[in-house]
Amino acid sequence: xxxxxxxxxGANVPSGQEPLEQTLRAALERLKALGVPELTVSTxxxxxxxxxxxxxxxxxxxxxxxxxxTPGELLDVLHRVEAEFGRERVQRWGRRTLDLDIIAIGETxxxxxxxxxxxxxxxxxxxxxxTPDHLILPHxxxxxxxxxxxxxxxxxxxxVHPRLGCSVAEMLDALRKEALEEVVAL
Length: 186
What we know:
Layout: E1 3-11, H1 20-33, E2 38-41, E3 45-47, E4 58-67, H2 71-84, E5 99-105, H3 113-120, H4 124-129, H5 146-155, H6 168-174, H7 177-181, E6 184-185
Antiparallel strand pairs: 1-4, 1-5, 2-4, 3-4, 3-6
Helix pairs in contact: 5-6
């Protein structure tokens, strides 16, 4: 099955001597080399670190790509590329040399609707403490995060969340104005 996949990209610490923008561009090239052809890449955006105070500002983007394998295989490729750029999974929501997240694959809901809904409904304090042990799609926080939705609006404004029934554009409209103002195009 080939479905458009939405991937969020981010970094807030250099993986070497190059600037963050170069890291994101190099990661996109590496994904292509590993069989994940890009269709569209968003503008790059500077955003405050989340949660506040956890590190320097991020550079974020989104890509719409094509993938012919399973969601788990795509996740493995993303983790491989993160590791190649020095990503260490030490702290949840910590500093990142590279962060590649699958936001959605078409209308796919994983592992099932009930689990996706439960993770999406977690209170913030539990989000910080709990980490799922399996892939959850769509990403359970997509509707809450301007740093994901603003870049997604560049590449897939009409994608509709299969559980919420809202498009990217509609989810953006539901966010606080202050959150949107923090996402600044380069």
